[in-house]
Amino acid sequence: MSGEEIHRILKEKFGEKIGELKDGAQPSIEIDKEIIRELAKFLKEDSRFLFDHLVYITATDERTKIKVIWCLFSYTYKHYLVLKADLDRSNPEVDTVSDIWATAEWHERETYDFFGINFKGHPDLRRILLPDDWEGYPLRKDYTPPDFYHGIDNRYKR
Amino acid sequence: MIRSQEMLINMGPQHPSTHGVLRLILRTDGEFVYDVEPCIGYLHRSLEKIAENLTYPQFIPITDRLDYLAAINCNFVYCHTVERLMGIEVPLRAQYIRVIACELNRIASHLIMFGTMGMDMGAFTPFLYAIRERERINDLLEELTGARLTYNYIRIGGVAHDLPDGWKEKCLEFINYFRPKIKEYNDLLSYNVIFMKRLGGVGVLTKEDAINYGVTGPNLRATGFKWDLRKNMPYSSYDKFDFEVPVGTGEGGKLGDAFDRYMLRIKEMMESTKIIEQALLSLPEGEIMAKVPRVLKVKEGEVYFGAENPRGETGFYIKSNGGTKPERVKIRGASFSNIHALKKVLQGVLIQDLVAIVGSFDIILPESDR
Amino acid sequence: MERLIVKAFVKLGLGSPPEWAVLLIVGLIAGIILLLFILLYEGLGTYIERKVAGDIQVRYGPNRVGPYGILQFVADGLKLFFKEDIIHSQADRLLFRVAPYIVFTGSFVGLAAIPFSAEWYAGRLNVGVLFILATTSLVVAGLAMAGWAQANKWGLLGGMRSVAQIVSYEVAVGIALLVPVVHIGSLDLQSAVLYQKKGWGILGWNIFHDPFTLIAFFIYFTAAIAECNRTPFDLPEGESELVAGYFTEYTGFRFAFFFMAEYGDMFVVSALATCLFLGGWHIPFIEGLIKLPILHNILGSMVFIAKVMVLILIMMWMRWTFPRLRIDQLMALNWKRLIPAGLLMLLLASLWDLIFDGKGFFELIGIIK
Questions:
Q1: Tell me, what CATH number does B289's domain have?
Q2: In this complex, is the C-beta atom of C88 within 8 Å of any C-beta atom belonging to chain B?
């Protein structure tokens, strides 16, 4: 199914909450972060979409806000869909989809690890790749690495 | 919380059969494992952050360090993602050479899986048989790329070098040498009674669970689901080659068990030899690099591209702001999701089964930890 | 031997020694000879094992120290001897230190009852088979101690596995050994060999006595491999799942003791099989031609050791070929296959003895008398 069709159907169902469509290599749709759970269930279960494969969850730091990205794929129809939602930079929060796609559990942990996005309702939101006592969220653009970590000198030397 | 007869065991990150630095926290009662918590991150090198500070071509050698057993495949995924973002059309000869190199690397990677699977089962010998054949692949790739493990061979727009003189014949000779060896592996290990009984029926992953947990690649196919990105969504002229997509058959006991996952790799090696042979025999003449500007400036946009790597769908999401450096690179490692699925499979198994199942998933940590 | 010692005492002007002193000295000498023998065998055994492994695994094996690398074991022994002996702070120090010696002793003492030739043996026990079974079970205590003492969870699992495995397989071993014992009518190993020393060639061996003894031999051999913790039954060590099993925390020479105990165990169980099933030191075909006792002794012991080494080679071959069993499969094999089969063989072999008056198959059809 093409991006336009998906966008049209979603627009009919969710109206205002669905933003504009950007048709790149994968169609990407801006959404309101409030509807992600409802939308995810709909996209996964509706027989026209069947997005059963959550490829990844990630985020990008847009300086003024944080954009969280869900990339979905359907094994049945072989179509991609990228969902994007803007989050408040000071307190990024969004609902979890880990009960809809199990794989989201770790991807959300990773996104939390790197961007500090709080996935509400996540069963076990901890750091996954970085140590538990790491400070800051490294993939934010304003991140500066600590000079010392447990006594290890991390300063850049020539 | 812990009852007196239960024992909490830390398996890894230093352990002979966690295939790198995977750490599993086991809650066991004698030989039974009740609960498993996989912990990753011991090999985290912040590659995604590094990518933001490097230009596009500079990041290619780093991708070698993703899945070091299939470095060319990782090179390829990254370069092809950038090509898609820039809209570069790669010359046909370069595409064929990429396919040959990737498939050789896939065989090498599956050989390691075959060998370590035997080692996890306590049979040490198959590993050295696998290494014997892998050595020849390494020799071939060394001649082609100049390196034996981290190849750094594929470039944005093509490949680094053309095939050396006589390489084609050597590679064909290797294919003919290698095919009978697969039967030898089956005689030595695959159909050994103990081996089959150890792997058959343990660690069953159903198709629904596999999709739900984002498991891809051979582990997904072993559940009986015929899905191969090379076949279903062809890229880099894979559609020009004739090959089968093997799926799990359940000959070991149950569909989607550890034996299916193991056997699938053995079958895939055979299919890879077919692809290499066809590509070598129909190798077109021509350029090996597309016309790519010296300083790569990628126009604004974003793209995701996932390819069928030996361990599953490894993909790159790249977002560009129009400069020489990417704004954001997200690496979707196949092993990341595969390790997550271990949590589902490893409930209520024996410690020995646990080792077998982890081996059969063929995980690699640098890819998931990035 | 005793007479020689008495003579030596008299010559040295010490007078006639008391009986206990003579016994003690004889025991010491025999012990030292056996110890030297087992050390040499273990050294060469590791060398052979590595060469066999190399051969099977399309590589060379040791080939640097000495001609064909034959001195590799000396280098290895020296290395192990000079390595630091680490006992970590959480370990139970006493048990940790004692365990390797118990394991080694358990595997080594069994040699005392084994006749190497018609006259060369440390002691002729009328309960030889029982003695060896008893001493090899002593290994279990050592392994369990080692597993417990090192305060390592993998070690503990290894110790648990070894106890479960060895105690279970001991039963199968015992039952399988009863089959030839029924024919022989004695638990003495020397008389077992003498019983098989009949007729022509190798047909007098117990293994050819009747079909049931033949099957009992395979039952015994399978169970014996499990008792030595060799692949495919090497679960207590299981290096891919238990790191190193019961000797995870051991280093240096204490580790070497476990290693030597494994080889000692292999020798003892193979020697037992040789004595009871394969004719012991009986020299096939030319037995009657050798009149000189010393020559007979030398040839006999060489034949004996050759037979043992063939069995050990088979064990090595299996080790480098097979994967490992799972613990439930291991137990099922023992309790559901080997032990019932062993009991059945025991019953049938006893019936055979009753019906055919103790005559073997080849005696019945008249090939040997």
A1: 1.10.645.10
A2: no
Q: Which residues of B touch C153 (CB under 8 A)?
A: 7, 9
| Partners of B305 in the β-ladder | B316
* B31 neighbourhood in chain C, CB within 8 Å: 157, 161, 327
Say if residues C184 and C348 touch (Cβ distance below 8 Å).
no
A140 touches chain B (CB under 8 A): no
The string of pLDDT tens digits covering residues C201-213 is: 677 788 888 888 8
CA distance B343 to B365: 16
Instruction: Say if B181 falls within a structural domain.
Output: yes
CA distance B307 to C148: 49
Q: Is A22 helix (H, G, I), strand (E, B) or coil?
A: strand
How far does the CA of residue C189 sit from the closest CA of chain B (Å)?
35
Neighbours of chain C (3+ CB pairs under 8 A): B
pLDDT digit string, tens, across residues A5-41: 877 887 787 777 777 777 777 888 888 888 888 888 8
Evaluate whether residue B38 is within a structural domain: no
B240: CB partners within 8 A, 6+ apart: B278, B282
Short-list A123, B311, A98, A15, CA closest to A7: A15
pTM for the whole thing?
0.87
Domains of chain A as residue ranges with CATH: 3-153 (3.30.460.80)
The label of the residue with tokens 């966690």 reads B18
Q: C15: left (phi > 0), else alpha (psi -120 to 50), else beta?
A: left
Choose between B73 and C197: higher pLDDT: B73
Q: H/E element holding A60?
A: strand A53-61
Which chain B residues contact residue C322 at CB under 8 A? 122-123, 192, 194
Radius of gyration of chain C (CA): 22
Residue type, B291: K
